[in-house]
Write a structure and sequence with these properties.
single chain, 2 helices, 42% strand, 9 strands, alpha+beta, globular, 161 residues, FomD barrel-like fold
């Protein structure tokens, strides 16, 4: 499997981070599965496994604490750009996120950041509307009991290696 360059673009704060060091477990035109360690040391999160659904526009991650215990699911709403010549995927964080606690309760996060980015012209109206629609689709999946998607249930990816 050829490993692409993977970048994460954020608007708040404004940054572009190379996350290519993450271990690539699976790659297709639709899905990336990666295993990673936290970029900055944190007391609450040590590592995770992420399922990036490129065309659906979200990344679903299993977060683990410092003891390697699963603590919650985290969904980033994203867009992406792909540069075929450089085999570079840029994941564009659209700010709004959903955290799903072990009891299944979802928490919407960072809606205020989405509003701020829109007010400051950091993102377009089209991007903001797309983010809200993707968030709504994720919430509907959660409320219907269809979360996580089937591929995220394969325990073979869950080990932290």
């Amino acid at each position: 499997m050829i490993k692409p360059i993977i970048l994460r673009r954020r608007f708040i704060p404004d940054e572009l981070v190379d996350i290519s060091r993450d271990e690539l477990l699976f790659r297709s035109g639709e899905l990336l599965i990666t295993r990673w360690k936290a970029i900055k040391q944190r007391a609450d999160i040590c590592a995770g496994v992420s399922y990036t659904f490129l065309h659906e526009g979200y990344k679903i991650s299993r977060f683990y604490n410092n003891e390697g215990k699963f603590i919650y699911w985290y969904c980033d709403v994203i867009d992406f750009d792909y540069d075929r010549d450089k085999d570079t995927i840029t994941l564009i964080d659209l700010l709004v996120d959903i955290k799903i606690l072990p009891d299944g309760m979802p928490k919407v996060l960072d809606a205020d950041e989405l509003a701020e980015a829109l007010e400051k012209g950091l993102i377009s109206v089209e991007q903001a509307c797309g983010a809200l629609k993707k968030m709504d689709g994720l919430l509907k999946m959660i409320y219907k009991g269809d979360f996580p998607p089937p591929v995220c249930r394969h325990e073979s990816y869950w080990t932290l290696g």
